[in-house]
Amino acid sequence: MLAEFLQYLFTGITIGATYALIALGFTLIYNASHVINFAQGEFLMIGGMATVSLTAMGVPMILAVVLAIILAGILGIALQRLAIAPAKQADVVTLIIITIGASIFIRGIAQVVWGKEYHVMQNFSTSEPIEVFGAVLNSQSLWVLGIGAIMVVGLVLFFTKTLIGKAILATSMNKEAARLVGIRTQMVLMLAFMVSALLGSVAGIVVAPITFTSYDIGIILGLKGFVAAAIGGLGSGVGAVVGGLALGIVEAMAAGYISSDYKDAVAFSMILLVLFFMPRGLFGAKVVERV
Amino acid sequence: MLNRFMQSRLRGMVILALILIILPVFLSNPFHYELVIQMAIIAATVVGLNLLVGFAGQISLGHAGFFGLGAYFTGIATGTYGWSSVPALVVGAITVGIIAWVVGRPILRLKGHYLSMATLAVGFIIAIILNNERAITGGPDGMPVPALDLFGWELSTFGSYSLFGLEISGVQAWYILASVVLLLAVWFAQNLIESPIGRALRSVKGSEVAASVVGVDTAKYKSLVFVISAIYASVMGGLYAHFQGFITPAVASFEFSILFITMVVLGGMGSTFGVILGAVVLKLLPQVLADFQELETVMFGLILMLTMIFMPKGLLPTLVAVVSRRFGKKAGGEA
């Protein structure tokens, strides 16, 4: 009983930590530009796929990871500069379609470069499972949790202690005012996309040994991240982390105790329930509409 | 003004009808017909979706869910239970309408990205159910659907029929049916837009708060248009199932929902004929891009992005604006 429960809990927290990182990526871009970036999942895919293919070419693991993260970062900047920035006055729906177009484009390139098959990545450390109270824990889970925690702490420090972080926060609160005090808001938007891409690629790399990776893995992971961000309340960092973990745990429990076929349906029912009762998610800001 | 000419209800319908009448001259084989019939059915679906997105300003990223429900309702009612097509389509539309009303009430209180999230979730849940209820839907492998029968007259793509003494093939008969359905769908939408309901909807899009202040029951109208667009999707899904003769849960998938909303936005939100153009372009594009083979997906994404960046208002409104600017003086003189 307990072993079973712990097993599901571990699985849930691990995948939940990944969702949390993706949701943080959504939050960052949403705060800076009010865009929901449907290409967010592609950053994960790029992180995982680039790492796998670089190590296959004989590049040492650490270097491969760094290169993959840099590649994703460049992609994030390119997305903002080439696709989002030129469409200044576009509607919400138009921006959604632009990011969907971008994700199809990126996925298309990945498919040409890396093919359609699944790729396996080795665990970072031992592939021996760890046993805790009868539950079997994949050692990679610890990496996911550890790196996830480091990223979250790093982000908090970035936003509270560094000038650049504060500039992003200021821009997200009031773009005009930020520009008045001398913040280059275009630069900030670019940075937001870059940091978001870095977060996504890290998530994609640490989770790849558990989920495997392929050119189309970004679609569903990106959507789950969006669900997590919406549960937490768009724009809330705490919400993104809580939403991600909650989604991961509920999904794992549903798959374990109810039916693995309906695992995803549970995730989507959960977001509907949350939104029915809290139309702005758990931690979403109350916004007064100006008429 | 050309603008006014394009927007005028009757002229638009006449132009569309003329195109549909002339088009068969260029269709040389059954494959062409099939493509155009699919286009017409999907165009009619997005005409309905456009009422929600383009006129009431509400986003739906889950409309394929209703399309899929309609398709499966028809498939199951006619295939498994031996109903004839017309009652299957009608009861299916009523059922889907009720489902849309029940989910729509709470969902449509949401705004912006939360609304897109909620509609996406509804679409996903429907697709997951269709995928997993193997006993009823055949699961991921799909299910066969019998040929359409209209009041005892069976319309199969493989049959041959005579119309006013002319021998026509099954696909040609389907083409006529699909054309009539598309024209009816456009006619209904155009009338709705010009009715008091349509004005109320546009006021909701302009500013929901302002609309409610002047006494528009915004919740009622949003639900109403959500239900209407779901009924459009359901009926077209049912016809699509009959035409294809075989359906899989892909008809309810997220990808399909995205395709629908993209047709609306690409063609031109709020322009009935624009979204038809959007449907045509997005159905044709993969055919054209097939020559690029493995670069097909890359090209598709690129074209989608570039069009939306440089024509954020959509294809038709942009084209109309360009044309009327160029011929503005002349057209203005005529008007």
Please explain how this structure is put together.
The complex is a heterodimer of chains A (291) and B (335). Chain A is an all-alpha fold and 291 residues long. Chain A has one domain. A two-stranded antiparallel ribbon of chain A has the order 1-2. In chain A, helix 10 packs across helix 11. Chain A is globular. Chain B is mainly alpha-helical. Chain B has one domain. In chain B, 74% of the residues lie in helices and 5% in strands. Chain B contains 16 helices and six strands. Chain B has a two-stranded antiparallel sheet with strand order 1-6. In chain B, helix 3 packs antiparallel against helix 11 and helix 12 packs across helix 13. Chain B is globular. The C terminus of chain B is likely disordered. The chains are: A mainly alpha (291), B mainly alpha (335). At the A-B interface, helix 4, helix 9 and helix 11 of A face helix 6, helix 12 and helix 14 of B.
Key attributes of the depicted protein:
heterodimer, A: 291 residues, mainly alpha, two-stranded antiparallel ribbon, 2 strands, globular, B: 335 residues, 6 strands
Count of β-strands of chain A: 2
What does the largest sheet of chain A look like?
A: 2 strands, antiparallel
Summarize the biggest pleated sheet of chain B: 2 strands, antiparallel
Q: If you average the pLDDT of chain B, what whole number results?
A: 88
User: In DSSP terms, counting alpha (H) and pi (I) runs of 4 or more, how many helices of chain A?
Assistant: 11
What is the share of helical residues of chain B?
over 70%
Number of domains of chain A: 1
Task: Give Rg of chain A in angstroms.
Answer: 19 Å
Low-confidence stretches of chain A: none
Tell the overall outline of chain B: globular
Give the helices and strands of chain A as they follow along the chain. HHHHEEHHHHHHH
